[in-house]
Write a structure and sequence with these properties.
Length: about 325
């Protein structure tokens, strides 16, 4: 039987959001909660509670299942959480715990892969068979589509676009590596640049955006100053665009994608990071690969819920032998 709905759950470091989603991608009901700090079982309880809230009153047979996106490295084939820096979920069998206490089939995946899945079905990459997704936020994540399917690698741990080495002796990355994209383009890295400028005479607008306290300058303050026309703040973000573009040249040469989709809170707040990155790729990628388009993601705050719901639809359809 073809179901009408899926439940998508987006688990973040600060917030968990769930939605009841129609096959066409409309979120008919949603619910949010702060991510509990009380350990893994509190997080699982919150997921179960939100899933129950959004599905209340809908017949069980109408719902394909629950998709859950986690900010974690996930062995997709085994459905296990291997590493998770921001939440205490490594080694926790999230899928089995949620499934044992809800009526639905549950599938988990990395949030970057799900952002790509959501954009491919409902967003900027509709109908695009080969694309790279990169999400700029607290972390830098991503996903890849190759020949119309998500590419996750041998165990599902792949497509970590944010953790490619771009400088051999670069700064430490939160993942423990060195010189990764995230160590240049994550929220913390942009905030650090903002604080460096705010400490000089050029940093008045950034300092003002942060309420006058250098220690509290965030990436969002840099964006705010830039949008009000501040040149030094804009320079920080232009430089970020150059780093983004140049670090994607290798992937573009390797995979020859049709499109690069830039999402995440920072990516979506800052169109000229994307414009600058597009210029770098056009300048530097090998001939024949320069026609790649670089676009902003379209799903915004709903990306996590929609991508997770897509996963639940796809898993249901493949169990039932249905085709998209
Ligand atoms: Zn890293």
């Amino acid at each position: 039987m073809r179901t009408s709905y899926a439940i998508g759950v987006d688990v973040g470091g600060t917030r968990i959001a769930a939605g009841l989603v129609e096959r066409k991608g409309r979120i008919v009901k949603d619910a949010k909660a702060l991510t509990p700090k009380g350990g893994p079982f509190a997080v699982v309880d919150a997921v179960i509670d939100l899933a129950a809230q959004v599905s209340a009153g809908v017949h069980q047979g109408e719902i394909s299942g629950v998709g859950i996106g986690l900010p974690a490295q996930i062995d997709f084939a085994r459905q296990s959480v291997e590493f998770c820096t921001n939440l205490p979920l490594a080694g926790v069998d999230v899928r089995a715990l949620v499934m044992s206490r809800s009526k639905y089939q549950v599938t988990i995946d990395n949030d970057g892969n799900l952002a790509a899945l959501g954009e491919s079905r409902y967003g900027a990459a509709r109908g695009v068979r080969d694309f790279i997704m990169i999400t700029l936020g607290t972390g830098v994540g991503g996903g890849m589509f190759v020949a119309g399917e998500p590419y996750r690698g041998s165990r599902g741990l792949g497509a970590e676009v944010g953790h490619m080495v771009i400088q051999l002796d670069g700064p430490a990355c939160p993942c423990g590596g060195t010189g990764h994209i995230e160590s240049y383009l994550g929220r913390a890295a942009l905030a650090l640049k903002g604080r460096e400028i705010a400490a000089t005479f050029k940093g008045r607008a950034i300092l003002e955006a942060a309420g006058g306290d250098i220690d509290t300058v965030t990436a969002e303050d840099v964006i705010k100053a830039s949008l009000s026309g501040d040149e030094p703040a804009t320079r920080i973000l232009m430089d970020a665009g150059v780093i983004l573009g140049r670090s994607l040249v290798g992937l573009v040469n390797l995979l020859n994608p049709q499109m690069v989709v830039v999402g995440g809170g920072i990516g979506e707040a800052c169109p000229f990071i994307i414009e600058r990155a597009a210029e770098m790729i056009a300048d530097e990628a090998l001939a024949g690969r320069r026609d790649v388009t670089v676009v902003q993601a379209e799903l915004g705050n709903d990306a996590g819920i929609l991508g997770a719901a897509c996963l639940a639809f796809d898993e249901y359809d493949s169990r039932e032998g249905l085709h998209r």
